[in-house]
Amino acid sequence: MRQWYTIFQKEMLENWRNFKWVWVPLVILLLSIMDPITTYYMPEILDAVGNLPEGAVFKMPTPSPVESIMMSLSQLNTLGVLVIILMSMQTITGEIKSGVSEIILVKPVSYSNYVTAKWASFILISLASLFVGLIGSWYYTNLLFGDLNFIDLLKVFAFYSLWFMFIISLSIFFNTIVKSQGIILFLTIVVVMALNLLTSVLGKYFNWSPSQLSQHIEDMLLTNHISTDLIMSAIITIAASLLLLIGSITFFQSKKIVE
Amino acid sequence: MFEGLEQINWGIIAPLIVIQLILMVIALVDWSKREVTNGPKWLWLLIIIFVTTLGPIFYFIFGRRDD
């Protein structure tokens, strides 16, 4: 445990020194407040730059608070996920390339400690960023569109953070299989997109898939009730993340990383 | 032509600008401390300053080289 904590601290220090602790929260915050603000100003923006014909009238429905939070989540679902993958895509392969991992693993450091400490440090960054982003989104929602309960926001955070955890696990998993950063990025995005696609095409059979989480979160906000679908999705997401983590430890131990 | 934009409440927009500025400043600090970057160093300076928001982010992701 002490060994794990030492590696964890090393990771935290490294992520601080390369500014990940600063830019990832800022980018996530930017992504989550962008949509509520642009939606709010859409009529003005169209007025000013839209070159609309004289007398054109646009009726834009004002989004409800729930819709506003969901706009933030849909941004996070696409660009936010990309940021998380980009942030974590070189954590292990980068160290293999620069030789740091050799220096660490030549000592009696267990492979599982090494992988899980990295995993935990990235989870911590992404959850902190998600929290900052959601607080920003909540602030603007209350300011522009109406009240949203803070408890509801905490629920959104609790469930949506599982999706980020799944993305990190996936990225770490590919880190232990392939060596090239580009391929890690590509594979992770392909898997996430395939999952999204399968879920939307075969929604009936993939009702509990991890990418269904945000849909269930919306239902939760609208009906004010945590459905079994949401809980099952959450459980499956946690299980998948843990399986990926175990898988990455096994792959990393077998040292069969593809060039 | 820009009448509509004058009514915008800057209290709402200001945080966006502040976040972008912070990103840019941090990227510049890191840039000035670093001897080598991926690709020509002066090019990254232009990217950080002139490409809003995305410039600093790209610098952090692709420009830094961990040695």
TrEMBL record, chain A:
The keyword Membrane applies. One of its GO terms (molecular function) is ABC-type transporter activity. It comes from the Bacteria. Keywords: Membrane, Transmembrane, Transmembrane helix. The chain crosses the membrane at residues 21-42, 69-87, 119-140, 160-178, 185-206, 230-252. GO terms for cellular component: plasma membrane. PANTHER family: ABC TRANSPORTER PERMEASE. This is Putative transmembrane protein YxlG. The gene is yxlG.
From TrEMBL, chain B:
It comes from the Bacteria. GO terms for cellular component: plasma membrane. Residues 22-64 form the Cardiolipin synthase N-terminal domain. Its main location: membrane. It is a multi-pass membrane protein. Keywords: Cell membrane, Membrane, Transmembrane, Transmembrane helix. Pfam families: PLDc_N (PF13396). The chain crosses the membrane at residues 12-31, 43-62. It is found in: Cell membrane. This is Negative regulatory protein YxlE.
